[in-house]
Input
Amino acid sequence: MSSAAPTAPDAAPEQAFRLADQVNRRPRATRPLAAARRHRADLVAALVFAVLAGWLAHGLWPDPGGRILALNPEDQALYEWFLAVDARALLGDFDLLTDRLNAPDGVNLMANTTVIALGVLFAPVTLLLGAPVTFALLAAGNLAGTALAWYLLFHRTLRVRRVAAALGGGLCGFGPGMVSQTNSHLHMTAQWLVPVIIWLVVRLLRAADPGPATPDEAGRSRATGPNRRRLFTSAAGLAGAVSAQVFIGEEVLFLTAIALLVMAISYAVADRDLARRALPGFAGGLAIAAGLALLVLGYPLWFQFAGPQGVADGMFTPAYFSADLSSWWRLSPLSVAGSDESARLTTGPAEYNTFLGWPLLLVTAVCAIWAGRRRLVFACVVAGLVMGALSLGPEVVLGGTRTAIPGPYALIGGLPVVDGALPMRFALALLPIVATLLVLAVDRAVRSSGRARRLVPLAVGVALLPIFPTPLPTAGRPPVPEFITGGHWRQCVPPGGVLVPVPLPTPKEPWPMRWATAADAGFGLPEGFFIGPYGRGGTAAMGTFKQPTSALLADVARRGDQPAIGDEQRRQAVRDADFWGASCVALTDDAPHAESLRATLEQLYGPPTRIADAWTWRV
Output
């Protein structure tokens, strides 16, 4: 919709009636054409974002099943398995405790970043074309969808010009943190619901605000009450959006909630009259939203923290996943002006969250001073400083050196839920905050008639240019054995049974999980790459304990030496197969030290059977 034409609910009554009358008089045949013309710019923005996202992920397109993101291939294998398991919901074969990994204990899907909602939504694509195709679509689609959602929020809620909204949406969707997280972290890049949540919160606030008191005919001051109907619909919509986001990525929802809380408090301090008028209705609306969401999320959240294979704490060390202070003014290696030398300032290529560069930081600071809309700018600045400070973790790190200076995160570290978020990811919330400040400044400039009309957009463009992203590096990956792709696995393991690939999958070597992915998770696997309660004292850990036979085979695969196999090893191999509930053990010729593994397996389980391109042992 045009920024110059507010919708009827937000317009004055006479303007609303006039607008409705004009719409009703317009011939029905012309209305779709008028709507198309009105939204043509929005469609162009969506197309530009889609093309840019497709270009960034273009290395996957020639052969999604044969290509992989080169910088974080292990996580891609994991997410493709998640998508295959999620897709089974379309077949009526889905449970929050899946038995398709870590046999016999299974995996708690709520305790892992399984993007359930995305997996179910794209289930037809996964079942028809395979999980690698779905992964490639989501890798690009999350970036484009997030950028478009923010563009629409800026344009339709802040009422800024489209050019300003497009710049802001582009930064939100394609900023350094988002591009680096695209290296397999689908749960972090699927942020297209965040602008919807913010829009619903704003709508809830507007519905709760009765407006300033106005004198009646007797001269007494009266205020209208909150719009209860709009309050309830906004609360219900917020509950739905929050519930959906939980099944996409809880960490994104957590970061959004923290940023919104800080902004709300800051805005209330800046506008106390609004806070006094709207707080009762706003708090009531939030209570309604929380109650409705709890009806949907109560059991899944209980299952996540207290259900079978659930974990109640985070497994990552906050001190290790803290942002280096010097990384803020450096550029991401995945940006056109970045360098690989900057990579030493973070934990890996999927965590370039703070690499905004000094030009963008400087221009943002100037725009915050000049942008106008003082209350909103004040709230953004406070929230940005808070989220940036929290990203530094419990101890400030500068240039790779720990300074012994405590960071603000130390004040909240150890609290429930907080432990599950990595400190450096608090910086992801800065992209929308920085974008908002730039959007307000650019919009004010293009509406002016002075030198700022050209100077401000030019300065913002120059600051954004160094962080323009480069395509994600990709590489080829070995094909899945024909034993799997041809469906031959069914000759030795029934659907839903347990197949033991040799060597077994681990968090560092999850590649056999691609077998299950290619078979649409039609069979289960022992061990694997997942989060479960296998740490000290039942705390969260990656993967599980290796059974003796699994450890023996892993050692053969690593060193190539054939161990001495006696009766005890053979009895243990039988016990381990029984523990896993395994039907079949399979070894392909491309396994590391395949000959040594085959000889070891023959001593453990006897002569094999050749099926397609795999040696198999029925156990």
Remarks:
- Confidence is low (pLDDT under 50) at residues 1-21.
- The two ends are 65 Å apart (CA to CA).
- The chain has 23 helices and 14 strands.
- The first strand starts at residue 67 and ends at 69.
